[in-house]
Design goal:
Layout lengths: L2 E7 L5 E2 L4 E2 L3 H16 L3 H4 L3 E6 L3 E7 L12 H38 L7 E2 L2 E2 L3
Antiparallel strand pairs: 1-2, 1-3, 1-4, 4-5, 6-7
Length: about 130
């Protein structure tokens, strides 16, 4: 039985599911993914609407990318065209946040490299991750 792992893309570092879950089919993995999304969104729809969940089979192949906005029941009242536009906007918002986050990491890494080259103190790690990649 294949093991499915999940990764939440939140516009920053995201969250990886290292353990995963064994399920008999891809269809059940996608349904399970929608359940996970609804649980994560519960009473936080506005804050999580732009997030995305990737589902990987056996830790390698991405079998589904599910935008949280597509599972957001608070958008069900919208006309399908307007809802589609809202989903596109959420996707762009997350992508923009990811680019800004990467730029921030690059600036921090550059500052650390310059400080290290000058023999000055620098932040070696932040949130358990090495500053210099």
């Amino acid at each position: 039985m294949p093991r499915y792992t999940f990764k939440v893309h939140d516009g920053a570092d995201g969250v990886n599911d290292e353990g995963g879950v064994k399920l008999p089919s891809r269809d059940l993995a996608v349904r399970y993914g929608y359940k996970v999304i609804r649980e994560l969104m519960k009473n936080r729809e506005l804050q999580t609407r732009s997030w995305r969940l990737d589902i990987c089979e056996d830790g390698h192949e991405i079998i589904a990318e599910i935008l949280f906005a597509s599972a957001d029941a608070t958008l069900d009242h919208m006309h399908p065209t307007l809802r589609s536009m809202m989903e596109q906007l959420c996707e762009r918002r997350r992508t923009f946040a990811e680019v800004v986050h990467e730029a921030h990491l690059t600036v921090r890494e550059a500052r650390a490299l310059v400080a290290r080259s000058r023999g000055k103190p620098y932040v070696a790690a932040e949130h358990g991750r090495s500053t210099i990649r």
